[in-house]
């Protein structure tokens, strides 16, 4: 359980409430790398350069519902006591956009394979 994002957020809330209160966005390491490679748009919305993930990565958060294919924001709010933005969920065949030089970005595991 300790590896799920939701449990880490709960720990943050209980042990560092001032940092939990400052949390605006929650994303996974793969999401952050994809975001950086795509140009790191400040608004973090879906589209080129936005925070994005796939369902396989989202399943490790502890607040993703594979039944509905959406985040359970009620669980995220319970763990952080705030509504933080999350990475956009991409459909299985979707791209996370392009790098500024035009390279196609996959989400989640695909970006990890490209970096190794």
Report a brief summary of the structure:
The protein is an alpha/beta fold and 116 residues long. It is built from six helices and eight strands.
Describe the protein's architecture and organization.
The chain is α/β, with parallel strands linked by helices and 116 residues long. It is built from six helices and eight strands, in the order ααβαβαββαββββα. A hairpin with a 5-residue loop joins strand 7 (97-98) and strand 8.
Topology (SSEs and partners):
Blueprint: H1 5-15, H2 17-22, E1 25-26, H3 29-37, E2 52-53, H4 55-58, E3 64-65, E4 70-71, H5 73-80, E5 85-86, E6 88-89, E7 97-98, E8 104-105, H6 109-115
Helix pairs in contact: 1-5
Query: Order of strands across the widest beta sheet?
Result: 1-5
Helix content: 25-40%
Q: Count of DSSP E strands? A: 8
* Rg calculated over all Cα atoms: 14 Å
How widely separated are the two ends?
27 Å
Number of helices: 6
Regions with pLDDT < 50 over 5+ consecutive residues?
Answer: 109-116
Give the biggest sheet: 2 strands, parallel
Overall average residue pLDDT: 80
The percentage of residues in β strands lies in 5-15%
How does the helix and strand content classify structurally? alpha/beta
Pattern of helices and strands: HHEHEHEEHEEEEH
The shape, in one word, is: globular
